[in-house]
Specification:
With 427 residues, the chain is an alpha/beta fold. It has 2 domains: 171 residues, Carbamate kinase, CATH 3.40.1160.10; 173 residues, VC0802-like (2-Layer Sandwich). It is 33% helix and 26% strand. The longest helix is centred in the N-terminal third of the chain and has 16 residues. Bound molecules: adenosine-5'-diphosphate, aspartic acid and magnesium ion.
């Protein structure tokens, strides 16, 4: 007899690529899902592509065309998740439990028409609910949906987290547990700083900032959706099940000693400068309006006096994946506004500190800059917000910068015995 019925609470779980990297790991994940189901939860598990298979598909596309993108690129990348949902479903069935895999369309995940980084617009849950109520465990492909034309779309790299949180919201799930290869959210990437400290609880707002500035540990949109929908979101380990992981919470714990909660490094930033722009109204609007109309998000912006009288230089950063398109747009804009030249620097890293505790504490920025200068790292650009400070540095100094800043703000951190979990040793 099924341990669940149509009244049973729903849990959404998500397993990242490293959790399903091979057959044994798939069996381990199947066991975790079945255990949840056996506890009486209607269980939906969102699965990422196995191991690095999305990277492999990206590499393949890169060998086939110069600047891959659009409909067919999405159709290609989406296959990774289709393999893993079917594989996990088969492993669960072999254990004697009813399981059904669904792709984005079958799961009712509708997105914008935009390819490669579409947002989820709506989830029609009837197919999932109907099968949950029949006692099935449901496995849903992460990272993808369908658009109004019925074409497959993808949500941007790391987007399976967002699939899971969006499903948890649409299904009014009790919780959303994001399982990965580390024990939770740390003060920085433990692959870069092995003595990084695990955070027990983090506010949605701090997690959102950390995710946005490049902490790969959660997809930014996932945290945003969790915050909007007040969804109980937990990041935890597939391999250390006894560890409760990191819980996102609404309130900021103001008693916490540290001004800085986390440090992140984004190695995929590009810097552009439109040099010698005429100093007149409408120039910035033309530059950033043109970029926006191509869906290119801009991060830091600095306008400074140009070398020639009556001109300004406007510099800004974007994600490197947009660099090719940005250059095309900027060359057109340059002619239109009569600027002198476009300069670009694609070898850039952005290092950021995030912490709600910074708000009333002066001197945090100075401490960050001091840590960088003590390590001989030059800062190319700075931007700040209430709970975040970001510095651009040379790409090859990004991780050294993180280590120096971590040492500054977490001087008592020491190396734990069980730092890393599996073979993805990096950097
Ligand atoms: P998954 O395949 O499970 O989605 P990801 O590789 O996307 O896993 O994310 C987990 C990785 O995020 C960890 O292995 C870790 O190296 C990295 N990471 C970066 N910043 C952090 C952080 N602050 N805390 C924990 N992990 C982090
Ligand atoms: N497989 C996709 C990626 O590697 C989505 C994800 O894992 O979240 O980006
Ligand atoms: Mg991920």
């Amino acid at each position: 007899m099924s341990p669940t019925n149509s009244e049973s609470p729903i849990i959404v779980q998500k397993f990242g690529g490293s959790s399903v990297a091979d057959a044994d790991k798939i069996k381990n994940v199947a066991r975790i899902i079945v255990d949840t189901y056996e506890k009486g939860f209607r269980t939906v598990a969102v699965i990422s592509a196995m191991g690095d298979s999305t990277d492999d598909l990206v590499e393949l596309a890169g060998k086939l065309c110069e600047n891959p993108g659009g409909r067919e690129y999405d159709a290609l990348l989406a296959t990774g998740e289709m393999v893993s949902v079917a594989a996990v479903a088969m492993a669960i069935q072999t254990m004697g439990y009813p399981a059904m895999s669904m792709n984005g369309g079958q799961a009712g995940i509708y997105t914008e028409d935009l390819h490669n980084r579409a947002r989820i617009l709506e989830i029609k849950t009837n197919n999932i609910i109907q099968h949950l109520n029949q006692g099935y465990i449901i496995l849903v492909t992460g990272f993808q949906g369908v658009n109004s034309k019925g074409d497959i779309t993808t949500l941007g790299r790391g987007g399976s987290d967002t699939s899971a949180v969006a499903l948890a919201g649409a299904l009014s799930a009790e919780r959303c547990d994001i399982y990965t290869d580390v024990r939770g959210v740390y003060s920085t990437d433990p692959r870069v700083v092995p003595e990084a400290i695990k955070i027990e609880q983090i506010s949605y707002i701090e997690m959102m900032e950390l995710a946005r500035v490049g902490a790969q540990v959660l997809h930014p949109r996932a945290v945003e959706l969790a915050r909007q929908g007040n969804i109980r979101l937990c990041k935890r380990s597939t391999f250390y099940l006894e560890d409760p992981g990191t819980m996102m919470i609404g309130e900021v714990n103001s008693d916490r000693g540290n001004a800085v909660t986390g440090i992140a490094c984004d190695n995929s930033q590009s810097r552009f400068a439109v040099v010698g722009c005429p100093d007149q109204p409408g120039v910035a609007a033309e530059i950033f309006g043109s970029l926006a109309s191509e869906n290119i998000s801009v991060d830091m912006i600095i306008q400074s006096l140009g070398k020639r009288e009556g001109t300004n230089d406007i510099a800004f950063t974007i994600n490197s994946t947009d660099a090719h398109d940005a250059l095309r747009v900027l060359n057109t804009v340059k002619e239109k506004i009569g600027a002198e030249s476009i300069k670009s620097d694609i070898e850039i890293a952005k290092v950021s500190i995030v912490g709600a505790g910074m708000i009333d504490r002066p001197g945090i920025a100075a401490e960050m800059f001091e840590a960088l200068s003590d390590s001989g790292i030059n800062i190319k650009m700075i931007s700040t917000s209430e709970i975040k400070i970001s510095c651009l540095v040379d790409k090859n100094q990004g991780h050294d910068a993180v280590r120096a800043i971590h040492q500054k703000f977490f001087p008592h951190a020491h190396s734990p015995e069980d730092v890393m979990v599996n073979e993805k040793v990096g950097y």
